[in-house]
Amino acid sequence: MRVLVVGAGGREHALAWKISRSPLVRELYAAPGNPGIAQVAELVPLGAEDVDGLARWAREKQIDLVVVGPEAPLVKGLADRIAREGIPVFGPSAGAAEVEGSKAFAKDVMRAAGIPTAEAGTFDAVDPALAWARARGGRVVVKADGLAAGKGVVVCGDVAEAEAALRAMLVEGPEASCIAFVDGERVRLLAAAQDHKRIFDGDRGPNTGGMGAFSPTPTVTPEVSAMVERDVLLPAVRELARRGRPFRGALYAGLMLTPAGPRVLEFNARLGDPETQPLLLRMESDVVPALLGAVRGDLSGVDVTFDRRAAVGVVLAADGYPAKPRTGDPIDGLDGPWPEGVQVFHAGTARAQDGRVVTSGGRVLTVCALGDALDDAARRAYDAVARIRFRGMQYRKDIGKRA
Ligand code: GLY
Q: Same domain, yes or no, for 115 and 235?
């Protein structure tokens, strides 16, 4: 098969790496890709949002499968356009991707399908939190931050309950990412993962695209997974199909875990970044039959299996990230060889004129490792991190420790 991966981030490097290991794949391309992806695929100089250019190129090259990583081209209709060329494409139509692209649409789907939801706001004072809760009729979930974690999570039914909970503690708590391959009707849940969104250790500082992720996460027990599949993913998939927008691709439910069960914070119409990096490192089964099963509308005979070991991915970010990342800094120590079960996925990297790999974006690399348990995986990932250097490199030292 000839496969094209669209995108240039760590998620797309992990996808290209995993796809390149499939015996079904003879030629692999990536547009636009990055220097890490270039180790496993031929790069195509087309932007991920160049919808017409990508469709034309895929037709001329007789591509058998296009795999779209990021949300922006999906929302712009890349999957629809590629499908019109008669080429199988992994990634939802623009109509189905609205579940991520439009908050109002996602809410409407959740309401119609009876999916338990919770909106998230993060506050460090009671008054703005209370105003936010009032605007939602008090039907919110209040989670304590790290210091008050022992007090748990309160699911509120009205403003009085919300106020009492807010006064007792202040926001944040266990979250999880549950991602499934979806064929329009059926779902194949991947192992659960958790990401770390804040820039600094201890979940402090500004939000980022994600500073690291790990899998599995002990908060998502087999019972919670079953609930997510039954109460969240399948109802969403059925509701989208009922609206004539069948979802084929990766559906990502960002969840808050409460004593009353999982509550949806958001849906994404794609794989998560950085969750995909440790997830694909753990995936034992060939990913290509699962991608094809989703595209062809039949995942029934497809198994998706995971290594029983844990995986941790640590994001190395550029100086100044997230506000104003500096670019152009040479990166040392990338060459390996790496120990078994260690993979370094590129995101914001570029090849300079002199051939060196330099930083070119906020999140530069995701350093991933497998280990017998999360702490082993984290230790092995951080051993690999210690070999990599660039000016101003920043990363969290506590990835995987929250578990
Ligand atoms: N890691 C969060 C996301 O992919 O949206």
A: yes
DSSP 19-43: HHT-TT-SEEEEEE--TTGGGTSEE
Question: What spacing in Å lies between the alpha carbon of 36 and ligand 1's midpoint?
Answer: 21
Quick one: pLDDT at residue 148?
A: 40
Name the residue of 252, 266, 315 whose CB sits within 8 Å of the most ligand 1 atoms, as the mutation to test its pocket.
252
Query: 269 and 177 share a domain?
Result: yes
Protein residue with its CA nearest to atom 3 in ligand 1 = 272
Q: Is residue 100 lining ligand 1, measured as CB closer than 6 Å?
A: no
Q: Tell me if 313 CB under 6 Å of ligand 1.
A: no
- Residues 135 and 183 occupy one common structural domain: yes
Q: Closest by alpha carbon to 152, among 163, 160, 143?
A: 143
Mutation probe of ligand 1 site: the residue of 273, 314, 315, 396 with most atoms within 8 A of C-beta? 273
Structure tokens belonging to residue 178: 């549950």
Are 268 and 354 found together in one domain?
A: no
Q: Which domain holds residue 319?
A: 310-385
With a cut of 60, say whether residue 173 has pLDDT above it.
no
Sheet of 248-258, strand order = 187-189, 175-183, 248-258, 261-268
- What is the arithmetic mean of pLDDT over 269-281? 98
Higher pLDDT, 163 or 29: 29
**Six-digit token string for 36:** 């890490």
In a domain, residue 401? The reply is: no
Residue 195 alpha carbon, nearest atom of ligand 1 = 1
Which residue has the CA at smallest separation from atom 4 of ligand 1? Answer: 272
- Using the predicted structure, report yes or no on whether residue 110 has a pLDDT greater than 80: yes
Tell me the CA–centroid distance for residue 274 and ligand 1, in Å. Answer: 7
Taken in order 3, 90, 54, 34, the sign of the CA dihedral is negative
pLDDT digits (tens, 9 = 90+) for 211-248: 999 999 999 999 999 999 999 999 999 999 999 999 99
- 273 within ligand 1 shell (Cβ under 6 A): yes
Neighbour tally for 305: CB within 10 Å: 11
> Among residues 33, 60, 94, which one ends one of the domains?
94
Residues 140 and 287 placed together within one structural domain of the fold: yes
275 lines ligand 1 (CB under 6 A): yes
Q: For position 217, what pLDDT does the model report?
A: 94
114-156 per-position pLDDT tens digit: 999 876 676 767 777 888 888 888 777 776 654 443 445 677 7
CA–centroid distance, 354 to ligand 1, in Å, is 34
pTM comes to: 0.90
